[in-house]
Specification:
alpha+beta; 5-stranded mixed β-sheet; about 40% helix
Length: about 375
């Protein structure tokens, strides 16, 4: 099951090596043992730890010998669930840098694997602890959403509405309001940490005139009395522009917390339900790194064959290598097109759902008038 997928852009002074150093620290839990960052960067076929966890890594180049670009790296950590028998957690981290001195793209993916359908214990949605560690140490790009908690009040209402309606916004806004007692249903800074890279957290402080805010930004984009409202990016339907929302009301939140569940996990689940699939397609997976390594080797063999004294004898094999390489590129292009078609269909489905919602609202208004 896919739990979490996300991508970040970092600008560490030490380049990819600095990020790999943080990955090595994260892997080196007390129950496992220390992992050498250089060994991790150069590739690990399979490393088993005392607690049963396993670690693998692969790369297109050795950091110590100078990099060829684009540089790709991937690492995968697998460990069993401490409380649920038959469940395994897998965390993947991928890096890509197009050229020296350029920002480093870092993707993370968290998933589970169950041995059979009998493993049915519910999963609490979370994100890898490594995300927080990287955000603190590796200088995320300034445009990364969720780096600070923002505030919505009478002075920032127009700016908030502009952000809601901004066409270029690609991430949700999570609005957290105070209860009548002046308390937030979830610690805003904790929620921001969980949603970094996925969404902006915006708080409505106690004492703010929420009626005035509602007049300014619209009821659909507001949250009152301890509610949490997730406002997704702008979409275009047959009735014009709109933003889908997921409103968690105070009574639902009270029931959730009363059942021992986490509100930040519920908000994260509402967001990742829509973002996980496209993010997983962008993920720099071990398979993508392996494919890049294979492509590099095929290219090197073709160049070597051109300058060989036996080039004529090798012509048939060279042609086979070239055809294989071309086939891989075509398959990759086909896969990208299939994903684009799927996303377009998803957009169409969401637009139709929005139209249905608007029609129901109109019908309810007509019935009320009658």
């Amino acid at each position: 099951m896919l739990i979490y997928a996300n991508s970040f852009w970092f600008e560490p002074a030490g380049g990819p090596a600095e990020i790999i150093q943080q990955i090595a620290k994260w892997v080196s839990l007390p129950s496992r043992g220390r992992v050498n960052a250089d060994r991790l960067a150069n590739g690990i076929r399979l490393l088993k730890f005392r607690d049963g966890s396993t670690l693998t890594s692969n790369t297109t180049g050795c950091l110590a010998e100078g990099l060829t670009y684009p540089y790709l790296f991937s690492a995968q950590l697998s460990h069993r669930d401490d409380t649920v028998s038959g469940r395994k957690w897998i965390t993947e981290v991928g890096l890509r840098q197009e050229a020296a001195g350029k920002p480093v793209e870092c993707s993370l993916l968290l998933k589970t694997e169950e041995v059979s359908a009998r493993v049915t214990v519910p999963i609490q949605v979370t994100r890898p602890k490594l995300v927080e560690q990287l955000i603190k140490a590796c200088r995320p790009a300034a445009e990364t959403p969720g780096l600070v908690v923002k505030t919505l009040d009478e002075h920032s209402a127009k700016a908030f509405l502009h952000e809601v309606e901004r066409e270029a916004r690609s991430y949700p806004l999570v609005l957290v309001s105070c209860s009548r007692e002046g308390a937030y249903p979830v610690e805003p800074e904790r929620l921001r940490s969980v949603l970094t890279g996925l969404a902006e957290v915006v708080t409505v402080p106690s004492g703010v005139d929420t009626f005035a805010l509602e007049e300014e930004v619209g009821r659909r984009h507001m949250a009152f009395g301890g509610a949490v409202n997730v406002v997704f990016p702008v979409r275009h339907g047959s009735n014009g522009r709109f933003c889908e929302t997921v409103l968690l009301r105070p009574d639902f939140i009270a029931e959730l917390l009363g059942g021992g569940k986490s509100l930040e996990s519920e908000v994260l689940a509402a967001i990742t339900h829509r973002t996980n699939l496209p993010a997983s397609w962008r993920h720099i997976s071990p398979a993508k790194v392996d494919q890049a390594i294979l492509h590099g080797r095929v290219t090197a063999l073709l160049e070597k064959a051109k300058g060989s004294a036996h080039a004529g004898e090798l012509a048939e094999y060279v042609e086979l290598l070239r055809a294989t390489d071309q086939e891989l590129l075509i398959k990759d292009a086909d896969l990208k097109q299939a994903r684009a078609d799927f996303e377009a269909k998803e957009e169409e489905v969401r637009d139709l759902r929005a139209d249905i919602f608007n029609l129901k609202q109109t019908l309810s208004g007509l019935q009320a008038d009658d």
